[in-house]
Design a protein that fits this description.
By secondary structure, this protein is mainly α. The chain is built from eight helices and no strands.
């Protein structure tokens, strides 16, 4: 190969090598740019997702705040209603207490000059009107307070009474009489219901009291009443 041909070949080789190196460098640069773009795209996508999540969280916070505000309004409304109810109750309670005080004063004035016989008749009338005896846990204190009497005077009143040895005997008889009335007026009622309505704490106590007064059980007394009603219808 002559000298010029060698030079040309060398130049071509150098150009080829330079081209190849340049292409490798360009490809590497392009690859880097592509990788950077991919990373930027991924970051952008990540930021978009984060923004969406933050936006969703923000909406949730807004909803929570709205619900809390609504709850606060409901609680404030309930508080206002409770305060109004308490005020009404307070006024009503004061009115009731004033009325009770007035009644007690009237009772004291009315009973202060009564004889024991008159007072007993008055107490008996009040008991029938109010049916205090139908309360199974009524006490001497409760009755004395309702009648405007002292416990001592009420207790002495029953001790001195020829018919009753004490208050318990009186209450037992009043409950018995009411029970008889209830059985006569409400034949469909069960024995337990009659006993409870009349103020007896148990059916057994009720049966014992009825037995002691009539010599019959409540069921037998009810049968007797039913028989009397049947006889009256037959006569008609």
């Amino acid at each position: 190969m002559t000298g010029p041909n060698v030079l040309i070949a060398a130049i071509i080789i150098v150009l080829v090598i330079t081209f190849v190196v340049t292409m490798l460098v360009v490809n590497a640069h392009i690859k880097k740019i592509i990788d950077d773009n991919d990373q930027l795209a991924e970051k952008h996508h990540t930021l978009l997702e984060q923004n969406e999540m933050q936006g969703s969280e923000l909406e949730e916070h807004k909803m929570e705040l709205k619900e809390k505000k609504e709850m606060i309004e409901v609680l404030r409304k309930q508080q206002k209603e409770l305060v109004e109810q308490l005020n009404i109750i307070s006024v009503d309670k004061v009115t009731v207490l004033q009325e009770q005080t007035r009644e007690h004063r009237e009772h004291i004035e009315l009973t202060s000059d009564m004889s024991d016989e008159q007072l007993m008749a008055w107490v008996d009338q009040r008991m029938d009107e109010t049916r205090l005896f139908a309360n199974p846990t009524i006490s001497l204190k409760d009755i004395a307070s309702a009648m405007g009497l002292t416990q001592r005077r009420l207790a002495n009143l029953f001790k001195q009474h020829e018919k009753y040895a004490n208050l318990n005997e009186y209450l037992s008889e009043k409950r018995f009489l009411l029970a008889c009335q209830l059985m006569r007026e409400n034949p469909q009622w069960k024995i337990e219901a009659v006993a409870m309505e009349a103020g007896f704490q148990t059916r057994r106590t009720f049966q014992e009291v009825v037995k002691s007064h009539l010599g019959l059980t409540p069921s037998q007394f009810r049968q007797m009443l039913a028989s009397e009603v049947s006889d009256v219808k037959n006569e008609e």
